[in-house]
Amino acid sequence: MRRLVLLVCLTLSGCGFQPLYGSRSEEGARVNREMQRIYVANMSERTGQQLRLALQEQLGAGSTKAPDGYTLNVSFGINASAIDIHSDNTSGRIREIGNAHWRLYTVEASPKFLAEGDATLLDGANATFEQYLASTLNDETIHARLAEGLAGIIRQQIAVWFRSQIKPSRNNADDVPSYFDPNAMPTRNGQPYQKAGPDGFPAAATGRTDLNSTDE
User: Fold this and answer.
1) In which region does residue 16 sit, left (phi positive, over 0), alpha (psi from -120 to 50) or beta (all else)?
2) Which of 31, 91, 109, 126 is deepest in the core (most CB within 10 A)?
3) What is the value of pTM for the model shown?
4) Whether residue 153 is found in the same domain as residue 191
5) pLDDT tens digits for 131-164?
6) Number of domains composing the chain
7) CA–CA separation, 152 and 150 (whole Å)
8) CA-CA distances (angstroms) from residue 44 to 4, 48, 149?
């Protein structure tokens, strides 16, 4: 297996491929050093603490390290929705969507804004009725996975910025497709519609609560 991985790495490097923040290349080592100078600002609530710890681990900066080169501010939230609705109005699965928006600043008397980006990750677990401990453990496990996954996405976006100085694009609601809601009552502005979720489907198609509905 090791020989296969080594062969693939040699083949890719021969084609000009370089790891984004690998330590073998000079540019990759520079990106690594810059990411280690990022101080992750405090985040509220338990889920925010989990994301902060994951970012600190993946960026390579210790939790006690004072701000040096950069400060990373992250706003983070999780939306839960029930899908797989049964005839008795119970749900067979809980889907949770983690959304994070990050902003990178310099550390100086008047901090300068450098870059920002968005990260979205979808996870879920089967509902376990009358098994409260199992349900709580499932929820905590989902939040931990979301924190780890979002930290990886944010790390990659920051590395891209350090490498190219191109700011990641922000989520644009205008680019999300919309669908008419056939079950909603018409309003004075016409038939309400729903925007697609991160999975590409509107809420009406899956039975979840629509967080992006509009009657405009």
Assistant:
1) left
2) 31
3) 0.65
4) no
5) 677 777 877 888 899 999 999 999 999 998 888 8
6) 2
7) 5
8) 44, 5, 19
